[in-house]
Amino acid sequence: MSEGPKTPEQITDRLFATERKPEDFRFDASVARVFPDMIRRSVPGYTTIIPMIEVITEQYAQPDSHCYDLGCSLGASTLAMRHGIRHDDCRLFGVDNSDAMIERCEHYVALDDSSVPVTLRCEDILTTELSNASVTTLNFTLQFVPPERRTELLTRIASATRPGGVLILSEKIRFESDEEQDIQTRLHHEFKRANGYSDLEISQKRTAIEQVLIPETLAAHRERLLSAGFERVVLWYQCFNFVSMLAIKAD
Q1: N or C: which end of the chain has fewer CB within 10 A?
Q2: Nearest to 168 by CA among 147, 146, 142, 139
Q3: Which residues contribute to the annotated binding site?
């Protein structure tokens, strides 16, 4: 594994530190500015998942194929994929519908020392062109897609994936049991407190995000991935209510 991409500068996330009018969470310029700190302190295991995306990409990226990071935000997983690609004829695409995210992502791609070319698109991942894919990443992205559009997106990805190709899907999930859900939610909140978030920040962020981030069960994800056209679904990572799966297209 390489030394990996350079880490974006860490600007402390204080977006929810004071009382504010309730509104839905948006990936705007204010979020883009603090996003590296926000996601590191909010998502258990994120700093493990990113370098493992490089490892998985190295194993599955095929010659003369396309690799996609859908919902690339600032490009952490894009750059991890970039460092995992070992074929000169691979093409890598990062796609996000936030102008602010793409603008900062361009900056980090320019700073990175890999020679693999990266094309960034400010587009809706539901309509962006997909073809000849060997590795696609949805790193905590599908959860923001309306539930009624998720099968459509995954079917498009599966149809565009070459035999032996994969989808890396990382998601926040919910649990079948209310008791387990309560335990995992409590542990997640303790993780945030351990990273310096106050009860006010945790509460306000949860209120802002609960209408736009719709989690599903692990079983629901597996069933949808298989029905979309992938042959196998492997759970390769879990920390509390955050998981990452590998969906594999049949050879």
Answers
A1: C
A2: 139
A3: 46, 71-73, 96-97, 124-125, 139, 206
Q: Are 92 and 81 in contact (CB under 8 A)?
A: yes
10 Å Cβ neighbour count for 217? 13
Rg of the chain in Å (alpha carbons): 17
pTM value? Answer: 0.92
pLDDT at position 2? 55
Per-domain boundaries in the chain:
29-175+210-248
Domain 29-175+210-248 grouped into CATH 3.40.50.150 = yes
- Per-residue pLDDT tens for 162-218? 999 999 999 999 999 999 999 999 999 999 999 999 999 999 999 989 889 999 999
CA-CA-CA-CA torsion for 46, 49, 50, 54, nearest 10 degrees? 180
How does pLDDT run across 136-174, given as a tens digit for each residue? 999 999 999 999 999 999 999 999 999 999 999 999 999
Q: Which residue would you say has higher pLDDT here, 26 or 218?
A: 218
Residues making up the annotated binding site for S-adenosyl-L-methionine are 46, 71-73, 96-97, 124-125, 139, 206
Strand pairing report for 161-172 and 242-248: antiparallel
Q: Give the angle subtended at the CA of 87 by the CAs of 72 and 4, to the nearest 5°.
A: 50
Distance of CA 208 to the CA centre of its chain: 19
CB burial string 87-122: b at 16+ within 10 A, e below: eeebbbbbbbbbebbbebbeebbeebebebebebbb
Residues 60/83, Cβ–Cβ less than 8 Å: no
8 Å CB contact between 94 and 78: yes
